[in-house]
Design brief:
Chain B: This is T-complex protein 1 subunit theta. Chain B: One of its GO terms (biological process) is behavioral response to nicotine. The complex is a heterodimer. By secondary structure, chain A is of the alpha+beta class. Helices cover 44% and strands 15% of the residues of chain A. Chain A folds into two domains: 245 residues, GroEL-like equatorial domain (GROEL, domain 1); 180 residues, 2-Layer Sandwich (GROEL, domain 2), CATH 3.30.260.10. Chain A is built from 14 helices and 18 strands. In chain A, the strands form seven sheets. Chain A has a four-stranded antiparallel sheet with strand order 7-12-11-8, with no helix packed on it. A three-stranded antiparallel sheet of chain A has the order 4-14-17. In chain A, strands 5-13-6 form a three-stranded mixed sheet. In chain A, strand 2 and strand 3 form a beta hairpin. Chain B has two domains: 250 residues, GroEL-like equatorial domain (GROEL, domain 1, Orthogonal Bundle), CATH 1.10.560.10; 178 residues, GroEL. In chain B, the strands form five sheets. In chain B, strands 5, 6, 7, 8, 9, 10, 11, 12 and 13 form a nine-stranded mixed sheet that branches. A three-stranded antiparallel sheet of chain B has the order 4-14-17. In chain B, helix 2 packs antiparallel against helix 5, helix 3 crosses helix 4 and helix 7 packs across helix 12. Chain B is elongated and about 100 Å long. Chain B starts with 10 loop residues before the first helix and ends with a helix. The relative contact order of chain B is 0.18. The C terminus of chain B is likely disordered. The chains are: A alpha+beta, B alpha+beta. At the A-B interface, helix 4, helix 6, helix 14 and strand 18 of A face strand 1, helix 2, strand 2, helix 3 and helix 9 of B.
Chain lengths: 509, 558
């Protein structure tokens, strides 16, 4: 909460300071009022620097959440709702950033969330670090467009390098693919609150995603949260599970367990149809059973009835739950999460969402790279070597890009309380000797071959993070002026006296 | 006119209390000029490939990051009456050719700045105006001599690409080759042999995520919608389009149904169901596999659609619906009924897919000569995608302009310097006092290569002297080499940096007109703004003409 509060304060400060009013020329007795009253404009290098500073502040807010030893943030919104998270996108969303340039960082975190679902903290950090490395060049008066060109080149090189060195796993080998997926999921979960149960959950997540059809629609995985119980009591239902809602009198007499039932999925009430369908949708995820939703009670034929192996009603925590298990056309599944505090289960849900997204991406793109800063170090080395082969300003700038990439392993070390400089030195040496996959070993305060250690990430996560971060950095660099119109309100500015030019000027002659 | 115009004694007394009134050179003309100059200073740094972006936050707190002058001005809400005239000129340019809006602003600003010098020198306003008008006329004559090449075959993708590239370059420097390729493909595929090109037929769909280079282009349309029913993919689709909701007909009048007994009650809803089933069945039997509706989809109708394996897509915008009709060649039916084979559209494949985490429905033609093509823009932030969309707009508009007039002039300041050179010598042949203003008009052209140079961090004067010397040697196509580090020049024709003739033609014409109009004003009378609450503004925009009247054209890419 402290961090968030402080951050908001700094941000609001930044907002004010970055919007300097037009300085009226001294020669003019009255300034020419060109724009609407209250419009702020600011221009030039100071504006650029101020934008870069704003982005640093944002990155500070999420910096400490990176990696397995990252800390969580507790945020309380205006309505007093508390959220605990270490998901970069979630934190930034809740921060409610107003600074226009800093908003860009929030946007890329969102974009990363949309595209790959994980790595939102790293993308923010990378973008901020790119800007930090460039700040001195901007101050020295290097033209931003030159920087942007160098960065685009560097990003293209880095992305093609990732594609070149990524290890792809054959899809045909089911066993191998599964292992790959579980490792990717475990890496994603490693940095989350539920890292302790990562084997348990990574298996569950992979099972869940594997049970989906080709389109892998996220909606087909339901996540239900039931308070109470231990995390390990969470379970995966291959089918549909939902909280029992309303049922008719006499239901209690009915058996609670059916084997191979036929299911009629009704969108209406099971009684004589009244004049108005004020029916409640009582069965939501109906597609699973292969039955179509029936809106009418008539025409109840075999082909519209669904089937499943088992229907039962079970007590889960304080709730009665209905389970439909083993559906023949099962393309859906439900994860029932157990856990203590509400915030805890919510964060678990977010973590699982990230893991699910990672697994989905990994199924679509079956190439992986080693995590734990290994890929960043390798790219950094590659770009540094490359930069030495070219002349001119580009050399410095690509070198800066390479240096900025080191922020990921550095931050991992910092968060774990290691001596970052020492570890980075070891890593640089190892990579120079050709140890391509060496990254930070969080458990032993050392470096390790993270590919062997099975810290794997889908390469698409890193590709997207690099592209998004450099696009954002370029966008921020390309802005040299901010013009802010006053917010229009319904009643407008008080009176009309201030409108037009020459306000308050005594009439001459 | 140049002298102070004596006012009727107590002129202010004749006006309502609070009205303001300015007249004469000092009060009106110079102040107007200063306002316009300030405005063009703002957009000047955004000119050219190395121009910087502006962050504009409009009155609704929406953020724009762009170097597109038209967008900056639209969101700025310029208040000053004289500056507004220049803004209007740039809007006209936007409507006429769709590109070169910044050219108008920078040029008009330069014209006014130089006019101030002339006026301070002692020339009268009318002499300045006369000179400008003469020079403008002469410029437009000379401009046709500057034409260095012309588009030969716009159906050729490679040629179209090289022509669009220059326009895209000034918006998205660094991505120009990639984007120009997409735009060229999109434009060429919908450019019919008859030569009638409609800008509206190139659609843009923005989906958050990944990077710019993941953008793509396809023949057909993309909607950010989900399929309503169970069917998510249809090949060789026959498409029935309904402009009405996919529901049973509701009568306009209210009726009362009297139900006497239980049997009738049961039959009542059953009759409704049967009717719906018959309807859906009829649509299916007519051969349709995809139903597109402009309204709601009733649960009941959806149920039968699933039963008969019809894919249902719902589009909320009637413009989208019309465009889709055009794409697939369907006729929108106003009523739920079975379509005839003629009324149904055809599409090679209709499918639901996931881009990033957005679900989209794609109507895709395999063949090249579709009616509508779509550019799918990817990007890491919304602002970035908006800016790319504007670049695509400019590219498409350039293509349209080239369809109208195939002539091209060299870019990169080459045309401007050539014009400046020739107008200067023309001015020297004029005997009257307008000679001064003609020469200043020529000088105003220097503002454009100067802006290009200064935005790239190169000394403007150094570049201009280099350009002049190159042009005096007879190299008409020499322009600023933006790739080099210093003030270097190169042949723009060889580098294929070319601007359409019409863009320059209208740009010069509109900018001159605007500058002259501003100069002509010598008196400003402003009534006191009415007090009380302001009337709610329509879409928050003062320039109602042109922006609102054609929602179809303006709202093209949403």
């Amino acid at each position: 909460m402290d961090a968030a509060d402080r951050c908001e304060q700094i941000i609001s400060l930044l907002t004010l300071s970055s919007c300097l009013p037009v300085s009226p020329s001294l020669l003019q007795p009255t300034p020419v009022i060109l724009l609407k009253e209250g419009t702020d404009t600011s221009q030039g290098i100071p504006q650029l620097i101020s934008n870069i500073n704003a982005c640093q502040v944002i990155a500070e807010a999420v910096r400490t959440t990176l990696g397995p030893r990252g800390m969580d943030k507790l945020m309380v919104d205006s309505r007093g709702k508390a959220t605990i998270s270490n998901d970069g996108a979630t934190i930034l969303k809740l921060l409610d950033v107003v600074h226009p340039a800093a908003k860009t960082l929030v946007d890329i975190a969102r974009s990363q969330d949309a595209e790959v679902g994980d790595g939102t903290t790293s993308v923010t950090l990378l973008a901020a670090e790119f800007l930090k490395q460039l700040k001195s060049y901007v101050e020295e008066g290097l033209h931003p467009q030159t920087i942007i060109r160098a960065f685009r080149t560097a990003t293209n090189l880095a992305v093609s390098k990732i594609k070149e060195i990524a290890v792809s796993v054959k899809k045909d080998d089911k066993q191998e693919q599964r292992e790959l997926l579980e490792k990717c999921a475990a890496t994603a979960l490693n940095s989350k609150l539920i890292a302790g149960q990562k084997e348990f959950f990574s298996k569950m997540v992979v099972d869940a995603v594997m049970s989906l059809e080709e389109l892998m629609s996220l909606k087909m995985i339901g996540i239900k949260k039931v308070q109470g119980g231990a995390l390990e009591e969470s379970q995966l239902v291959s089918g549909v599970a939902f909280k029992k809602t309303f049922s008719y009198a006499g239901f209690e007499m009915q058996p609670k367990r059916y084997e191979n039932p036929k299911i009629a999925l009704l969108n209406v009430e099971l009684e004589l149809k009244a004049e108005k369908d004020n029916a409640e949708v009582r069965v939501k995820s109906v597609e699973a059973c292969g039955g179509s939703i029936q809106t009418s009670v008539g025409a109840m034929t075999d082909d519209v009835l669904g089937q499943c192996e088992l229907f039962e009603e079970v007590q889960v925590g304080g709730e009665r739950y209905n389970f439909f298990k083993g559906c023949p056309k099962a393309k859906t599944c439900t994860i029932i999460l157990r856990g203590g505090a509400e915030q805890f289960t919510e964060e678990t849900e977010r973590s699982l969402h990230d893991a699910i997204m990672i697994v989905r991406r990994a199924i679509k793109n079956d190439s992986v790279v080693a995590g734990g800063g290994a890929i960043e170090m390798e790219l950094s080395k590659y770009l540094r070597d490359y930069s030495r082969t070219i002349p001119g300003k580009q050399q410095l700038l690509i070198g800066a890009y390479a240096k900025a990439l080191e922020i990921i392993p550095r931050q991992l070390c910092d968060n774990a309380g290691f001596d970052a400089t020492n570890i980075l030195n070891k890593l640089r040496a190892k990579h120079a000797q050709g140890g391509m996959w060496y990254g930070v070993d969080i458990n032993n305060e050392d470096i390790a071959d993270n590919f062997v250690a099975c810290v794997w990430e889908p390469s698409i996560v890193r590709i997207n993070a690099l592209t998004a971060a450099s696009e954002a950095a370029c966008l921020i660099l390309s802005v040299d002026e901010t013009i802010k119109n006053p917010r229009s309100t319904m009643d407008g500015p008080p009176g009309g006296a201030g409108r037009g030019r020459g306000r308050g000027r005594p009439h001459a002659h | 006119m140049a002298l102070h115009v004596p006012k009727a004694p107590g002129f202010a007394q004749m006006l309502k209390d609070g009205a303001k009134h300015f007249s004469g050179l000092e009060e009106a003309v110079f102040r107007n000029i200063r306002a316009c100059k300030e405005l063009s200073q703002t957009t000047r740094t955004a000119y050219g490939p190395n121009g910087m972006n502006k962050m504009v936050i409009n009155h609704l707190e929406k953020l724009f990051v762009t170097n597109d002058a038209a967008t900056i001005l639209r969101e700025l809400e310029v208040q000053h009456p004289a500056a507004k005239m220049i803004v209007m000129a740039s809007h006209m340019q936007e409507q006429e050719v769709g590109d070169g809006t910044n050219f108008v602003l920078v040029f008009a600003g330069a014209l006014l700045e130089l006019a101030e010098e002339l006026l301070r020198m002692g020339l009268s306003v009318s002499e300045v105006i006369e000179g400008y008008e003469k020079a403008c006329k002469k410029t437009l004559e000379i401009l046709s001599d500057c034409v260095c090449s012309s588009a030969k075959n716009l159906h050729n993708i490679n040629e179209a690409k090289s022509l669009i590239r220059t326009a895209v370059m000034s918006k998205q420097y660094g991505n120009e080759d990639f984007l120009a390729n997409l735009i060229a493909e999109a434009c060429v595929s919908i450019f019919p042999e008859s030569g009638n090109f409609n800008v509206d037929n190139v659609r843009v769909c923005k989906i958050l995520g990944c990077g710019v280079t993941a953008s793509s282009m396809l023949h057909g349309m993309v909607f950010k919608k989900e399929a309503e029913g169970d069917v998510t993919s249809v090949k060789e689709a026959k498409i029935a389009v309904f402009s009405c909701p996919f529901d049973c007909m509701v009568t306009e009048t209210k009726g009362t149904v009297l139900i006497n007994n239980a049997q009738e009650l049961m039959d009542f809803s059953k009759g409704e169901e049967d009717l719906m089933e018959a309807n859906v069945k009829a649509i299916k039997e007519a051969g349709a596999t995809v139903v597109v509706t402009g309204g709601k989809v009733a649960d009941m109708a959806l149920h039968y659609a699933n039963k008969y394996k019809l894919m249902v897509v719902r589009l909320n915008s009637k413009w989208d619906l019309r465009r889709l009709c055009k794409t697939v060649g369907a006729v929108a039916l106003p009523k739920m009924m079975a379509p005839t084979p003629d009324e149904m559209g055809h599409c090679d494949s209709v499918y639901l897919t996931e881009v990033g985490d957005t679900q989209v429905v794609v109507f895709k033609h395999d063949k090249e000569d579709g009616v509508i093509s779509t550019v799918v823009i990817r990007g890491s932030t919304d602002n970035l995608m908006d800016d790319i969309e504007r670049a695509v707009d400019d590219g498409v508009n350039t293509f349209k302009v080239l369809v109208r007039d195939k002539r091209l002039v060299p870019g990169g300041g080459a045309t401007e310097i050539e014009l400046a050179k020739q107008i200067t010598s023309y001015g020297e042949s004029c005997p009257g006092l307008d000679q001064y203003s003609i020469k200043k008009f020529a000088e105003a052209f220097e503002a454009l290569p100067r802006a290009l140079a200064e935005n790239s961090g190169v000394k403007g004067s150094e570049l201009i002297s280099k350009l002049y010397s190159a042009h005096h040697e007879g190299n008409k196509n020499m322009g600023f080499d933006i790739e080099s580090d210093g003030p270097a020049v190169k042949d723009m024709l060889e580098a294929s940096i070319l601007d359409p003739y019409l863009v320059k033609y209208w740009g010069i014409k509109l900018a001159t007109n605007a500058a002259i109009t501003v100069l002509r004003v010598d008196q400003i009378i402003m009534a006191k703004a009415a007090g009380g609450p302001k009337a709610p503004k329509q879409r928050g925009h003062w320039d109602k003409d042109g922006w609102d009247e054609e929602p179809d054209n303006f709202e093209t890419h949403h």
